[in-house]
Structure formats: structure tokens, C-alpha cells
Amino acid sequence: MISPLDFGAKADGVTLDTAAIQSAIDACAARGGGTVTIPAGRYLSGAIFFRDNISLHLEAGATLLASQNPADYPVTANRWEGVEQQTYTPFMAGNGLKNITITGRGTLDGQGDFWWKGFREKTLAHPRPRLIGFADCQNVLIEGVTLTNSPAWTINPVRCENVNVRGVTIINPPDSPNTDGINPDSCRLVRISDCYVSVGDDCITIKSGTQFERPDLLQPCRDITITNCTLERGHGGVVIGSEMSGGVQNVVISNCVFIGTDRGIRLKSRRGRGGLVENVRVSNLIMDGVLCPFTMNLYYHCNGAKGDTTVSDKQPRAVESGTPAFRNIHYSHITAVDVKIAAGFFYGLAEMPLEDISLTDISISLTGGAEPDYPEMADDIPSMTQAGFFIRNARNIRLDNVQVHNQLGPAFDTDDSVEADIHP
Asked: What per-residue confidence (pLDDT) applies to 424?
């Protein structure tokens, strides 16, 4: 067994053990690979770089504490929020590797309060480190560990293939900024299962870059399964976008429980992003206490676009490479209770309607008492409370056995921009 203790780690939570942990990994790699075991103890460390064929196993009682010193995170090029840029290196980092694993019953603690404060006060020189960030890797497994207090996004594979995230617990404070749980970005063959995620932003988000990314790095995120997860509190349960310029294809979401997330299944983009989201299947979900269970929003105005008339214009514009599209998206066998704001919010572009959308065997029960709020982030939309489905700019939308209870006003608010077949 190779352990950082063999290389001088103190495991006291005070002494910086970066060199000892990295030496253990490098020694294991020099033998052709294997497992580096972290025994029980508290190990303070800066960024750790994986090598090919390395498994990092955290025994029960082992905690890796992320240093709060920016000098312990080299500044390198990483995709962050859809574009390659200089950022602090992730706490657990790897690029261009094969067969890398993080397993065990131990904990990675990002000690993110320093980074959250710096982000709010704009004192950081570069974007914050993610807790786990692997890029251009093959055969990635993250299993069993607890991840907490991430400085920014928690698990963020970028352009990786064959990624498994199983049985992981992610807990970040509800007010921690941009602490998404699991964000596969331009990846292929991703399986997320049996996880509990409670964070300060979106729980699971599927991304594929923005229009500002280098063209050679812009790839779709595709062939994704998400199953048997419990998702609590985040801004969205499972989200696609808004960085989706490379496209998102072939996504299955099933057998999950959403508790108190702002939105349940959330798709978002806007003019200029381009990209196509298609072939999404969502089934067998329970949602409890969400603001709005289903949203599709092609007028998303966050991250600098609020008030931009190119984004907010509700009149049709010319279809071009920057026109995003959502199509072939199907929901079935879903129960949502104690819904606050609206049963659903679907808003396609006037020039690019949502297309081939179905909801089958859906039960939504709204509850009174919530303050009026916005079901999505878009200019010129009404605030709502206890509303039904709001649908605009949609073609070939089918609702079969969709039951909406306790709404104020119509269960289905549509206009002439919607071609719908509704059988409540």
C-alpha cells in the first residue's frame, strides 16, 4: 500500500501535506499505476495532480482539507463558465489522463468560505478552483466519497469520456455562490447514480461551452444517464445549459427525488449561444416543494444579458448559427407536490419554437401562500404564484393525462404561438 504517510505527511490538519500526497501519487504512477490510500486523519493540501492509472482511496475518517492559500493552486488554462480561460487549478486535477479514480468513505472539504468571500468582494485574481476538475480524460470513476464546501463547482469533468459518479454525497451551504454539484461539460458517456446533492446553485448541470469558446474545443455533451439521485435545495435539480453551444444529445433522467429546488428539470439558453438540445427523456420523478417543476427558457438573461434587447426581443429574428433550439424532449410519470410558483414555464423563441415536446401522466399540486416570483430568468415575463403551465412559441407539444390541482387561473395558458394537443 502506498500512503502519503510514507512520504512524510503529518495528517494533523495544520501542516501542508501537498508534497507528501503528490509524491505518493507520483511514486505509484512510476510503478505503472495502482492505489494511493489516504488513512484516517486530516490532510491539509493544495492542488493535487493525478497521473494515468491512479486510484485515490480515502478511508473512513480521512479528510482532505483544501488550502485557503491561492498560492497553493497554480494558475492554468481551464474551461470555466463555457470558455477556456486562466483559473486557479482544481483541488483534484488531471488533464489528458486514462483510468483515474477517487473512491472511499472519506471526505474532500474545500473550505470554501475564503473563496466565497473573495468572490463576493471581487478580491480574487482568477476564477475559483473547482473541487474536482478533470479535462480530456478517459475512464473516470468517483464513488462513495463525501464532498463539501466546494470553492466553486464541485465535480466538473470537461471533454471527458466514460465518466461514472456513483454513491457520492455533495453538501455545500445554500448561500454559497456557484457551488453546483455535478457539471459534465462536453463529455460523452456519463453515468450519475445513487447520489445525494444539496448545494448553493444547480445540483446537476449538463453543459457544452458557449459561443466564445475556441471552435476546436467546442464539443457536444451526449449520452448521459442520471438515475436514483436525491437532489435538494439547489437552484435547479437537473439543468441543461445555459452553456450549451456545443449541443446536448441523448439524456435520460429517471427515478429521482427533488426536494425544495427552485426549478426541477430546467433547460435554458438564449440567442447568440447556438447549439441544439435534443433527445431528452425524463421519467419517474417525485418533486416536493419546488418553485416550478419544468422550465424551458430560450430568453435566459443571466450572466450579463439582462436588458439586452437582442436576447429579450419577443419578435422573430433571422435564424442563424447563434440560434439555439430545443426539440424531442419528453416527460412522463412525474408527481410534483407543494409547488409554489407555476406548474411549468415553456418559452421558445419566436423564430425557433420548442418542438416535439410531450408530458404524459403528470400530477402537479400547487400550494398557496408563496410570494409572487418569476418562474424563470427572462426579461418581460410576469411574476406568478400558484399558476398553471405558461407556454409560448411551441410546435407539436402534447400533454396527455397532465393534472394540475389548486392553480389560480387556467391550468394551461397558451396563445396563438402554440400548436398543442392537450388531454388533461
From this structure: 78
Grouping H, G, I as helix, E, B as strand and the rest as coil, residue 366 is strand
pLDDT value at position 388?
Answer: 98
Residue 201 a catalytic site member? yes
CATH, range 202-424: 2.160.20.10
pLDDT of residue 307: 80
For residue 151, is it left (φ>0), alpha (ψ between -120 and 50) or beta? alpha
Give the H/E segment covering residue 239: strand 236-241
Q: Residue 23 and residue 358: Cα distance in Å, rounded?
A: 54
* Residue of 72, 180, 201, 262 marked active site: 201
* Alpha carbons 108 and 62: distance in angstroms, whole number: 9
Contact 215, 243 (CB under 8 A): no
Residues 187-227 have pLDDT tens digits of 999 999 999 999 999 999 999 999 999 999 999 999 999 99
CA distance 279 to 356: 10
**How much is the pTM?**
0.97
3-state per-residue secondary structure call for 119-161 = HHHCCCCCCCCCCEEEECCEEEEEECCEEECCCCCCECCECCE
Cell digits of residue 377? 430568468
Taking CA atoms, 312 is separated from 4, 50, 106, 191, 305, in Å, by 54, 44, 47, 35, 9
Which residue ranges make up each domain of the chain? 202-424
Record the cell numbers describing residue 231, joined without a space: 437532489
Among the listed residues 401, 400, 419, 403, the one whose alpha carbon sits nearest the alpha carbon of residue 411:
403
